[in-house]
Write a structure and sequence with these properties.
The protein has seven helices and twelve strands. The chain is α+β, with helices and mostly antiparallel strands. It folds into two domains: 213 residues, no CATH class; 39 residues, no CATH class. A six-stranded mixed β-sheet has the order 2-12-11-4-7-8. It has a four-stranded antiparallel β-sheet with strand order 1-3-10-9. Helix 6 crosses helix 7. The longest helix has 25 residues. The protein is globular. This is Transmembrane protein. InterPro entries: CHP02186-rel_TM.
């Protein structure tokens, strides 16, 4: 099993008119600039509060077809969330009980990782090219902590990676979607993905790639930030900046609630 991130937030729906105007602006800039692709997010800020249960992230852009010389091309988009350490345990059966026996600590696991593309990734580019840009869950870099006691052998690492990826996929925190890019007119495109509440707050980075002949020939980047507000922000700030105070308050609240419950039980 591995540790997860839970978050509660408020969803904000991007305005259709604003997105359309932005698409037109991108189309114009794509032709005037030196880039083959210009892209961005329909909304760059989302705020976490109690009513949030996930939100759709809309990404869009434009390609300069004149520079593509009429040749076929593909679009691939990755969206990556903030990274954090994750511990994966392996259980063994001992004396009739399942117990944790080995662990592997991954140092930089994205809370969320999605790859959206015009076609299946294997049809777009060979493995070596995908590996350069981490186009696919199978080529996602998952570094492990150097100094670990009782670390598994290199031959066993694949088991831990497979378990991590399997659980991330089950929670819809790692995903790949082919044929997920919609084109409008000659140059404009749009895609979207759902960001679950469990993905948590932080900075999300979208990378847009234009591929032709199995090679990446252009790219662009957009950033999206998910922030906590209200009581969630204050609790999170206290827990991270003053953990001892957070612990004292938590214990005190537990004692008060427990005492009140016990008193009411005796009265009844």
């Amino acid at each position: 099993m591995f540790s997860g991130v839970a978050a509660i937030a408020r969803k904000q729906t991007p305005a259709i008119v604003a997105a359309a105007l932005a698409l037109i602006a991108f189309s114009g800039s794509a032709s005037a600039s030196a880039n083959i692709i210009e892209a961005g997010a329909a909304q760059n800020q989302f705020y976490i509060e109690p009513s949030y249960d996930g939100t759709s992230i809309v990404l869009f852009g434009a390609v300069d077809r004149d520079r593509l010389k009429g040749e076929p091309f593909d679009i691939a988009v990755t969206l990556r969330g903030p990274v954090q350490p994750v511990v994966v345990w392996k259980k063994d059966r001992r004396a009739g009980l399942w117990v944790n026996s080995q662990r592997l600590i991954f140092d930089g696991v994205p809370n969320y990782f999605a790859v959206l593309s015009t076609r299946p990734l294997d049809d777009i580019a060979p493995l070596a090219e995908r590996d350069k840009y981490e186009l696919g869950i199978d080529v996602l870099s998952l570094p492990i902590r150097d100094e670990q006691k009782n670390a598994p052998s290199k031959l066993d690492r694949s088991e831990f990676e497979a378990a991590l990826v399997r659980q991330k996929k089950a929670a819809r925190l790692f995903l790949e979607e082919a044929r997920a890019i919609d084109f409008f007119g000659v140059s404009l495109f749009r895609t979207k993905t759902f960001l679950p509440a469990a993905a948590g707050p932080g900075l999300y980075v979208a990378h847009f790639y234009v591929l032709q002949g199995g090679k990446v020939i252009g790219d662009a980047t957009a950033r999206i930030r998910l922030r906590k507000i209200g009581i969630e922000a204050r609790l999170s700030s206290t827990a991270s900046e003053h953990p001892w105070l957070y612990g004292v308050i938590a214990v005190a609240l537990a004692a008060v609630v427990g005492g009140a419950t016990s008193f009411l039980t005796r009265r009844t």
